[in-house]
Amino acid sequence: MHDPEMDLASFLRDVPDFPKPGILFKDISPLLASAKAMQAATDKLAAFDFGKIDKIAAIESRGFLFGVPLAMQLGIGFVPVRKPGKLPWKTNRVDYELEYGTDAVEIHQDAVDAGERVLMIDDLLATGGTMAAACQLVESCGGVIAGCGFVIELGFLNGRQKLGKHPCKAIIPIN
Ligand code: AMP
């Protein structure tokens, strides 16, 4: 059994100036390397109250690392949100702004049924652009966003603002 009081922040490695100067990258490799820490992280995500949840959707690729075990623990299905050109079936696409240029995410059109309540998962909330686009994608399929769950939140970037009315919770808030 894992320790519910485990200090999960101690399983993050700060890497300065990656992938470019000025960015302090939060490396989750030490967390992934510990089965106990991963179980504790999954339990903490599962314990958040987002009301009824029908499916988990997570964002490529680090979101998958937490979304799949969470879906299995909750006994519900998993939906991948991926970078353009990766999903083989019919897709919907949302483009979003980056600091420099734009990026996009895609979802299979039949991944979510109309009215299904979907919990969105990613490893880290920074500016919120990626998660906001993923939420739009799920809504484009007729899904309802139950909320957004993160392992890490960089609170000083105010990513929650971009997520508007969607309830937002993180295991490790960093201010
Ligand atoms: P954003 O769209 O700005 O909220 O960025 C979120 C995405 O970028 C997440 O999928 C993260 O994996 C990644 N990301 C952004 N900033 C960092 C950071 N400082 N450390 C690690 N990953 C980051």
Number of strands: 9
Order of the strands making up the biggest sheet: 4-3-7-8-9
Ligands bound here?
adenosine monophosphate
Shape: globular
**Which value, in Å, is the CA radius of gyration?**
16 Å
Head-to-tail CA distance between termini = 30 Å
Using the coordinates above, name the CATH class. Answer: Alpha Beta
- The CATH architecture can be given as 3-Layer(aba) Sandwich
Question: What do these coordinates show?
Answer:
This protein has helices at 29-32, 35-47, 62-74, 129-140, 159-162, and strands at 13-16, 24-27, 55-59, 77-81, 91-97, 102-108, 117-125, 144-154, 168-174. It has one domain (49-174): 3-Layer(aba) Sandwich (Rossmann fold). Helix 3 links the parallel strand 3 and strand 4 (77-81). It is built from 5 helices and 9 strands. The chain is α/β, with parallel strands linked by helices. The strands form 3 sheets. A 5-stranded parallel sheet has the order 4-3-7-8-9, with helices on both faces. Helix content is 26%, strand content 34%. Helix 2 (35-47) packs across helix 3. The two termini are 30 Å apart. The mean pLDDT is 96. Adenosine monophosphate is lined by residues 23-26, 59, 62, 122-131, 159.
